[in-house]
Design a protein that fits this description.
The protein contains 10 helices and 6 strands; from the N terminus they run βαααααβαβαβαβαβα. The protein is of the alpha/beta class. It has a 6-stranded parallel β-sheet with strand order 3-2-1-4-5-6. The radius of gyration is 17 Å and the shape is globular. The protein starts with 9 loop residues before the first strand and ends with a helix.
């Protein structure tokens, strides 16, 4: 597959807090609820939660800060999946237009996320009316999830793409670790408004592009 007209024939997007608004309204409040069950009396501020997710990822946050066992992580994940069945996050204003335009002009939209594939599919069908071309979610083995470069390697192979035909978009740095070994550029989804300066400054330094608004991102892609 070769798509020459688009600046980036393939967008590889994170999901939570890049495409849909999750952290403030769903994942952080729910994590506090989980802590009350697994580690009664423990807590974490919103800023520290964002920082730890940024630096380590959610699973390592649970392991390093609270010593969650594998069994507890499985139980926490199962509880979360039940929760999200009845809670659908809103997309960021304007992101639907970007994704639909990418598809309409012949491009690919892939998702690499620590959300599950069924949850991602539901959100895309509800908000955007199409399925991503490929999804690499949390249900995959750990070695096939970001920050491992496997998802990007597989996308390149499946769709016959070179590194310069792909743009990764994320709000946290696990995607930078995933993309760096392959020479694939990364854009910071700075429109998420999480308000943690340490994370924002590091992402601006790490990423090839920084977009404060979805409108700026759309202008960059399509002119």
């Amino acid at each position: 597959m070769r798509i020459h007209m688009l600046k980036y024939p393939c967008l590889v997007l994170d999901h939570d807090d890049t495409v849909v608004q999750t952290m403030k309204t769903m994942s952080y409040p729910y994590f506090l609820y989980g802590l009350s069950i697994f580690r009664p009396g423990e807590t974490i501020s919103f800023a520290d939660y964002v920082r730890d997710c940024h630096h380590y990822g959610f699973v390592e946050l649970c392991r390093m800060r609270y010593n969650y066992t594998d069994a507890e992580l499985t139980q926490e994940h199962d509880m979360w999946m039940e929760y999200v069945l009845s809670h659908t996050p809103d997309p960021y204003p304007g992101i639907s237009d970007v994704l639909k335009r990418q598809k309409e002009e012949g491009g690919l939209v892939c998702v690499v996320s620590h959300s599950r594939e069924d949850n991602i599919l539901r959100n895309y069908r509800t908000h955007f009316g199409f399925d991503p071309d490929a999804i690499y979610g949390f249900e995959r083995p750990e070695e096939q999830r970001k920050p491992n470069p496997y998802p990007l390697q597989d996308i390149m192979k499946r769709f016959d793409l070179s590194a310069d035909e792909i743009l990764v978009v994320d709000d946290m740095k696990l995607s930078c670790k995933m993309a760096a070994p392959l020479g694939i550029k990364v854009a910071y989804a700075g429109w998420n408004g999480l308000g943690v300066p340490e994370v924002e400054e590091e992402m601006k330094a790490l990423c090839d592009f920084n977009f404060e608004t979805v409108a700026a991102f759309e202008e960059f892609l399509f002119g």
